Amino acid sequence: MFVAQSSPFLKPALSVSKMMLVVTLALIPGIITSTWVFGFGVLVNIVLAIIFALGFEALMLYLRKRPIKVYLNDKSALLTAVLLGLALPPLAPWWLTLVGIFFAIVIAKHLYGGLGYNPFNPAMAAYAILLISFPAEMTTLWPSPSMLAGHESVNFLQTLNFQLFNQLPPSVTLDAISYATPLDVVRTSVINGLASISEIEETGKTFGMLGGLGTEWVNLAFLAGGLFLLKKGVIQWHIPLSLLATLGFFSLLFGSFELDSNPSPLFQLFSGATMLGAFFIATDPVTAATTPKGRIIYGAGIGLLIYIIRTWGGYPDAIAFSVLIMNMCVPMLDYYTQPRVYGHNDRDQQP
Amino acid sequence: MSETISDTFGEDNIETQTSLIREYTPIAKDGLWNNNPILVQMLGLCPLLAVSNSVINALGLGLATIAVLILSNMCISLIRNIVRPEIRLPVFVIIIASVVTAIELVMHAYFHELYLILGIFIPLIVTNCSIIARAEAFASRNTFGKAAFDGLMMGLGFTLVLVVLGAMRELIGLGTLFANAHIMFGEGMQWLTITVIPDYHGFLLAILPPGAFMGLAFLLALKNYISLKQKAAKKRQKSPLPETV
Questions:
Q1: Which residue of A has its CA nearest to B203?
Q2: Residues A281 and A203 in one domain
Q3: ipTM
């Protein structure tokens, strides 16, 4: 074998398949924590999503006459499925997952030309479609977190029975096991002026130590997974940092005027899907900006949109819409932020 | 007008009939398929996307558009030799606007509920590009009979796509077909409403505007696929022997 003798020695770039696998592995702490907080529905969602995703992926590859084994092996469908499974409410019925995966894999990915050609993040496109099509199912099926006082839960088989056949044990009602997510509570009561932050805090049902009760642990786990990805060099720091900094900055800016009607910056950062979005969804190499400057603007745009939609918009969380809106801006960002080529003046460079 | 009548009802020999068929078949084929106002010319997409959320809405606007197309084509064909080319477009627009106003008043009088649902989209038929396009491209150059027939066929092509898209969106969005049939055909036609999928959850996306865009995209893809197949079949007919490579 020929061995390179002289410098520079460059590490070979990660293959697509390996990268997708590393990202999926980095999600595992978050998945475990989610399951601990929200019950087995999370796992059921992810497993169902993976099965549906591999099925649709194989079907589309067959219809498009691509080598099925090669492309199934790139694990991009697996990652999309895990992300969507984590984003869905843990008590989601099976058909919600099926419809979501259909839109993610068939419409948002393959009809645009497959992996590498899709302008929109498939998991988030599917999530947005589900949210506007089935608003009731997407918002009322969040189970109460296990750390809530007087928490009632269903075991694995009962969860499975509910998700597949819509049947609950006779002694349990859906209202008893579900709850309004912290972001939902804050949006509906504080922003409409029904209750102040301190009043909600007294109920002890919404706030944890850092962010939302329960969701703060999930966010911490995703943060840990994200830092692992950063260390591995799979993602760069630009997008997560600018996203989180912008979100924190604006909640600090607006929150410092009216402390009692604006949740703290920490609450914004450790509630909902903030960390999952910042480290795993916004950093998707296909749909994110590619230049360093572009990435910073892209991340900042998502952070700003998250704050705007959470505070003044119609939905409690905003990761999907923010990511999709900034996905649309990516071609323009990449076009206007191309770095200076070595040896050329700025004036030579035609934007 | 007299020439058409003599064409159709004058001598009853086979030769005029075949020449009639030869003249009128391409017009029908153009309107319905080869030069379909939506699938090929991509005209009049605004009413298509806005009103196709149920079969009855689609049918109502489609029929109104057919009436406007036939009447405006007829009027424009009649005056085509009197109007100077420099001022033809304003004249066409005035004729189309008058016809649309008349149709709007008729619908206001006889289909009041449908009129309320379709709302602004009835007066907006004036701005439907396919109508002025047919006036300019066909009616101003052809005889009365042909222009009227072209209006009918183009209108039918438009309505057909509108109704198919409306059926797709209504079926996926609400699980029904021909809902609200009574506002168009009267109370006696309530039975026309079919609930295809009972206990349907409803898929809001199909009813919302994105559903219209996606549905239209699928229809266009289907049309292009069929056209490609037809072309390939024609090629094979022309050269029956496969080419050796």
A1: A133
A2: yes
A3: 0.77
